[in-house]
Amino acid sequence: MIKIDYTDVMADRIGERDGILREELLSFRYFTVETHSLIQREKDNSFYFAKLPYQDITDILETAKQIRENFDYFIVIGIGGSSLGNIMLHEALNDFNYNENHFPKFYVLDNVDPEKFGAVIDRIDIKRSCFNVITKSGSTVETIANFLIILDILKEELGEKYKEHLIITTDPEKGFLRKFANENNIKSFSIPENVGGRFSVLSSVGLLSAAVCGIDIEQILEGARKMDLICSVEEHIEHNPAYLIAILHYLANIRRGKSISVMMPYSERLSSFVDWYKQLWAESLGKEGFGQTPIKAIGAIDQHSQIQLFREGPRDKIVTFIQVEKFKRDFKIPTDIPEDLNYLAGHSLSEILNKELLGTKVALTKSKVPNLTIVLDEINPYNIGMLIYLYEMATAFSGYLYKINPFDQPAVEEGKNFTYALMGRKGYEQKLEEFKSIYKEKYKLEIS
Ligand code: PA5
Q1: What 3-state DSSP class applies to 132?
Q2: Measured from the CB, is residue 79 less than 6 Å from ligand 1?
Q3: What CATH number should be reported for the domain whose range is 50-217?
Q4: 185: left (phi over 0), alpha (psi -120 to 50) or beta
Q5: Would you say the CB of residue 283 lies under 6 angstroms from ligand 1?
Q6: Phi-psi region of 175 (alpha: psi -120 to 50; beta: other; left: phi over 0)
Q7: What fold does the segment set 2-28+237-402 form as a domain?
Q8: Do residues 371 and 360 lie in contact, with contact meaning Cβ atoms separated by under 8 Å?
Q9: How far apart are CA 74 and CA 372, in angstroms?
Q10: β-pair partners for 332
Q11: Ligand 1, atom nearest to 191 Cα
Q12: How confident is the model over 50-81, as pLDDT tens digits?
């Protein structure tokens, strides 16, 4: 179960300078009705992510079963939308100590940080390891670089049997990895053509590693289907949670100058959910001078770090708290404690955490910082499925509000192209010239 409380975003609570008037919200009703029907039609095209909850997952489940039976280590090689969702599902839905207590142990090779790469390699036994290489384009430099090193190690250790230790998840037709998988008869999954990286967590991209780690992926999809049903049926802004979140953030941004969207869960298991959200919100909407900068804060840790700024710094933020009502475990403070600490006696950690959320929420409201709270009765696959779909739809719908394409990332491509040029990739000679004309080290300070 998910509840969305947006009371403290509204002008009747925090004033018109920072808060949204209900009339403003409702003035989007015709826009919403029109966009709603466009979205339903787009579900076979750019909004194909909305169809993922209905996919057949037999192959994913069967493959996950085989991996669990045959391997002790499962390593995802991918970056951005090809790894953030995997990390998010794993951290939200498995125990903190999963790798200490379970097999297959789960690792992600995303960055090309050699020390991190080495640390993962040191922890695994290559003969007992299965690698899932995930890349939609099939050409992302970090993923390909990590893959090529692993491939070399696999071949050296296992000879032709290396093929049994690889699973490729990539475009159905295009790219180097699709060719590689087909030519070498390596088990592969296809990422639907119309689904981009950051909208792909509910495809084999995110679901295989989740299933390998024992997560109930059918329940994740069930939750996503429920959210899809609500978002498909409800055209009314106040009843459609995705449109509501999108319009509130849009109005806060465009009309109240809230250029920063803070997401602050009071549960460390949702820390990676915020990383996933940051990519979704930033890469989808940061275009043509528009977009909100997403910021991560974790309750209660960031009360002792960023809340000072949120309350008294620039009035440029809208905050989303995520509250979890029931935790899997809890611990009580003893009653036999010094008298001046008596206010804590007999209370549980979860109680303190949630009271801290309320305290911080009211403190922000008092400072007229617009804030909403998403309440989960507990963190489970069903609720996480709902939450994922909710934010995917809110982000995609926001594309219509800002009149930008939420599904591309032209500004990311440019940096990739310069990197290819610097690495001497064929066909990028002109890019290298362009790089040289822009790159300068003019003002420098060197300290040794
Ligand atoms: O959302 C996106 O499309 C990007 O963030 C990609 O996921 C990221 O760049 C990795 O791309 P690929 O999956 O092609 O390796």
Answers
A1: strand
A2: yes
A3: 3.40.50.10490
A4: left
A5: yes
A6: left
A7: Rossmann fold (3.40.50)
A8: no
A9: 37
A10: 348
A11: 13
A12: 999 999 999 999 999 999 999 999 999 999 99
